[in-house]
Amino acid sequence: MSALSATLRTGSPALLAAALCALALGGCGLGAGPAPSAVKLLVTRDFGARVLAQSGAPKVAGQETVMSLLERNDAVSTRYGGGFVQSINGLAGGDEAGLPVDWFYYVNGVEAAKGAAATDVHAGDQIWWDRHDWSQAEDIPAVVGSFPEPFLNGFEGKRYPVRVECADTAAHACSIVAARLRAAGVPAALAATGSGGAPYALRVMVGPWASLKGEAGTPSIAGGPRVTGIYARFAPDGAALTLLDQDGRAMRTLTGGAGLIAATREQEDAPVWVVTGTDAQGVELAARDFDEATLAHHFAVALYAGASMPLPIGGA
C-alpha cells in the first residue's frame, strides 16, 4: 500500500493511473495457485504500539494477495477501486489531531513497493499492517519487528544470502548476532566491514556507530526519519544517540552504553540492518537483545541501562 498511498498523496495523475492499472492487473481476488502456508497476519496502530488483530494461522484460500488475505480475515473498507485501504476493523486513515495518518503494510519487515492488491503472499510471509502518522516519514522502508524475517524467508518471494559485517569480527557482539541468526535457522556469512562484495545480500552491520557510519550502504541515521524512516539520530561523532517521537521531536539523548537496532532500505536494494551503539558497551547491549522477544512489533529499538525503548518514543 505504501507506494500507492504515496502516489495518492502526491496527486500525480500519471502515477495514479499507473498505480491503478497495476492494481487492476494484480486484482484483489484469488489466483488459481495453491494457498500459501505458514503465513502470519498482524494489524497494529501507532508504530506497533497497540496490537489490534493478530493471527499465526489466518484463513487462506488459493493464491492470496495481501489485500485478499486482509479482507478474508478482517473488516476492510477501501478506496480507488479497491486498491487503497481506508479502514481496518473500523479504524480509518485520514487526519488525527491535525496530523496525517494512514495504513501501511510490510511483508517480512519490508515496506512493499506495490499496492496490496498487486502483491502476492508467499509461504512463510509475515504480513504486518500498521496505521501511523506519516508527517515526519512518508515512507519507512524497513522495520525490525518481524524478526527473524526477512532473513529467514526473504521478501517478494525470494530468499537472499545473509551477511553479518562487523567492525571487529573478534568482538563478542559479532558472534552473538551470528549465533542468533543461526539459531533462527538462518545461515549467515561473517565478514569485516569494508570487505566488499555481496551487493544483493541482506546485511547486518555490527559495531559502534563511529565505525559504521562511513561504510558503503550503511543508513545515514544522522539524517533522522525523513531520510531513513528511523526515529533516532546519532551525533556526528557517534557518541550520543537522540531518540525522537512521532513528530520528530528530540525526547531523550543517550550517551555511553546506548545501543540501537534498526533497519532501512535504499530504493530497490536489499534492506540493511544495524546493531550499533555509542560505544562497544552499547553494541554489546544491542547484540544481546537481537532476538524476536525484544524486537516483535517494533519499528526500531533503542537499548540503554538494561531497558529496551521502542521507536519512535511514545509510539509504543
Beta content comes to 25-35%
pLDDT < 50 runs, ≥5 residues = 1-29
Order of helices and strands: HHEEHEEEEEEEEHEEHHEEEEEHHEE
CA-atom Rg in angstroms? 19 Å
CATH topology of the largest domain: Chitobiase, domain 2
CATH architecture of the largest domain: 2-Layer Sandwich
- Total number of distinct structural domains: 2
Number of strands: 19
Biggest beta sheet attributes: 7 strands, mixed
CATH class of the largest domain: Alpha Beta
* Shape descriptor: globular
Give the terminus-to-terminus CA distance.
22 Å
| Helix and strand composition category | alpha+beta
Count of discrete alpha- or pi-helical segments spanning 4 or more residues: 8
Helix content: 10-25%
How are the strands of the biggest sheet laid out side by side? 11-10-12-17-16-18-19
Please, what is the average pLDDT? 87
